[in-house]
Amino acid sequence: MLVLGIESSCDETGLALYDTEAGLLAHALHSQIAMHQEYGGVVPELASRDHIRRALPLLDQVLLEAGKTRQDIDAIAYTQGPGLAGALLVGASLANALAFALDIPVVPVHHLEGHLLSPLLSADPPAFPFVALLVSGGHTQLMEVDGFAHYTILGETLDDAAGEAFDKTAKLLGLSYPGGPAISRMAEFGIPGQYKLPRPMLHSGNLDFSFSGLKTAVLTQVRNAGTNICDQYKADLARAFVDAIVEVLVAKSLAALKQTHLKTLVVAGGVGANSQLREALNNAARQRGYRVHYPELAFCTDNGAMIAFAGAMRLKHWPQTADTRYEYTVRPRWDLAEVMLP
After folding, report:
1. For 250-274, how does the pLDDT look when each residue is reduced to its tens digit (9 = 90+)?
2. CATH number for the 127-294 domain, one of 3.40.190.10, 1.10.287.70, 1.10.1020.10, 3.30.420.40?
3. Whether residue 342 has pLDDT greater than 70
């Protein structure tokens, strides 16, 4: 079965073709970073309009790369939510219009389930069960994954997500958008221990997170510094911030593995590409006999491949997910627990 995946939840337009026998055939992605940089963040209306411009050319690109035609597609998976409503509507309307024209089913996919399953696209995929750390701009969650669509949330952020804290801290330091990669690069030049920042909920006794206090602590440091903010100051404070957030993520992940008695950790989402986090997790796992799996770097950010794969998995395990009515809604807010198999 050949499944087309369409991702348009925020500021990346991603399309991909996944074959249930041959694997991923082609994928293409357009990022809107350059367009949103002057605004310091994503402008929803601009994002939606850009998805409209990019989607069909990207479809032609993946079809050409895979050596397929539209008539070869057996089903279309699209991101139904969560995300920006207007951006989601672009992907949903394209998916349903194409499916109607081709007389094939559509499969609505939860964006986070796409991220969660993205490491399964790698050459060395993890086996169920495992603990998953979903860490991105909008979400930070730990969950026990017993199998496809069998997820138990172990802990989640009570306020800001880790990626959101990265972006807001980068903005406080006057770094470029997107903030996550910028602050990570700046931290490489920082001196460890120059500033002491809190490790929120590190000793809370549960697996929940909180990053708003860490962001506020950075704001206090910047205000206290006044006009004396040089590049080395920024680097040192960025290093302190990254060290704090990485320590919390690593500690909670290890606690989740211990609590579930599992030996495998899967890390997914945009922050999963962070080099400091990967190094710390790899070192901690090696010392304790755990294994850590990540998506390929190309699949850490939003992408069509993860949506195509998640859609194919849904068709395999839950065929009734397929929709041929072509009546669609989008879900800007959507709890992952709602997509679990009965």
Report:
1. 999 999 999 999 999 999 998 999 9
2. 3.30.420.40
3. no
Q: Please tell me the pTM assigned to this model.
A: 0.94
CA distances from 266 to 128, 142, 286 (A): 10, 10, 14
Is 282 exposed, middle or buried, given 0-12, 13-18 or 19+ CB atoms closer than 10 A? middle
Do the beta carbons of residue 291 and residue 126 sit within 8 Å? yes
The answer to whether 253 and 131 have CB atoms below 8 angstroms apart is yes
Find where tokens 């997914």 sit: 268
| Count of beta carbons in the 10 Å neighbourhood of residue 73 | 19
Q: Which residues are annotated as a binding site for substrate?
A: 134-138, 167, 180, 274
Annotated binding site for Fe cation: 111, 115, 302
The CA-to-CA distance between both ends of the chain, in Å, stands at: 24
Beta bridge partners of 268: 134
CATH superfamily name and code, 2-116+299-339: ATPase, nucleotide binding domain (3.30.420.40)
Annotated binding site: 111, 115, 134-138, 167, 180, 274, 302
